[in-house]
């Protein structure tokens, strides 16, 4: 068994206005940096002695890597890049405000809303391809760290995939779990499958981002 602590990156300027990020390489805002520091401090003061993290992996996008670096510095680790956990490529929807997608890109917005795993998203990834990429990346990380505890700093869309797989919820079903910036989300990965330990913990944050991924 491998215990994996999944963390969504800290808040970005695009999160505050609910702009689709995808592979756009945005950086943390001031609140996002504070969130990452608060999580790192929480780990170093309250967690690391009793539940040490053996390694930290991160998406290669700046907002995740910046979050991971701040956390890793707090507990004496160096983050490792894992591009398989980067966000979904949302193609022509990237850069748009969520509630204006249908106005600017109606066909792509329909694909996004349908959650059809095989529907082509103009300029981006199908949901099915994204799902396979994230699941394979987590399985590969778990295989490298059997019997250990590792952290993976990723994105809202990837966390949605992880939650669904661990909860055995289909890609098209309603999601009932939050995807919060700088939250701690714990799963177990073993040959028998994935299991949720705990989800959506933001007790370490004084200010929680109001951004919520609706996918």
Name some characteristics of this structure.
single chain, 215 residues, alpha/beta, Rossmann fold, six-stranded mixed sheet, 37% helix, 16% strand
CATH class: Alpha Beta
Radius of gyration: 16 Å
Total helices: the number is: 7
The amount of helix comes to: 25-40%
Task: Say which CATH homologous superfamily is assigned.
Answer: Phosphoglycerate mutase-like
Write down the overall geometry.
Answer: globular
Widest sheet: strand ordering: 3-2-4-1-5-6
Could you tell me how far the N terminus lies from the C terminus, measured between alpha carbons in angstroms?
29 Å
CATH architecture: 3-Layer(aba) Sandwich
Total domains, how many?
A: 1
* Annotated CATH topology: Rossmann fold
Overview of the structural elements:
There is one protein chain. With about 220 residues, the protein is α/β, with parallel strands linked by helices. The chain has one domain: Rossmann fold, CATH 3.40.50. Helices cover about 35% and strands about 15% of the residues. The protein has a 6-stranded mixed sheet. Helix 6 packs across helix 7 (about 155-165). The longest helix is centred in the first third of the chain and has 18 residues, at about 30-45. It starts with a strand and ends in a 14-residue tail after the last strand. The model has no long low-confidence stretch (mean pLDDT about 95).
């Amino acid at each position: 068994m491998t215990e994996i602590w999944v963390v969504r990156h800290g808040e970005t300027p695009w999160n505050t206005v609910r702009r689709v990020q995808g592979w756009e390489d945005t950086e943390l805002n001031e609140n996002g940096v504070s969130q990452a520091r608060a999580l790192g401090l929480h780990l170093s003061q309250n967690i690391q002695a009793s539940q040490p993290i053996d390694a930290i992996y991160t998406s290669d996008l700046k907002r995740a890597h910046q979050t991971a670096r701040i956390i890793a510095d707090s507990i004496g680790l160096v983050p490792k890049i894992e591009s398989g956990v980067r966000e979904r490529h949302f193609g022509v929807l990237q850069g748009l405000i969520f509630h204006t997608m249908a106005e600017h890109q109606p066909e792509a917005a329909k694909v996004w809303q349908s959650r059809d795993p095989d529907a082509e998203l103009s300029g981006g990834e199908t949901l099915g391809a994204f799902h396979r990429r994230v699941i394979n990346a987590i399985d590969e990380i778990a295989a490298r760290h059997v019997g250990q505890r590792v952290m993976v700093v990723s994105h809202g869309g990837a966390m949605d995939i992880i939650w669904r797989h661990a909860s055995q919820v289909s890609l098209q079903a309603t999601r009932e779990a939050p995807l919060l910036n700088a939250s701690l989300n714990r799963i177990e990965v073993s040959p028998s499958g994935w299991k949720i330990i705990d989800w959506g913990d933001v007790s370490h944050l004084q200010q929680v981002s109001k951004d919520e991924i609706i996918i």
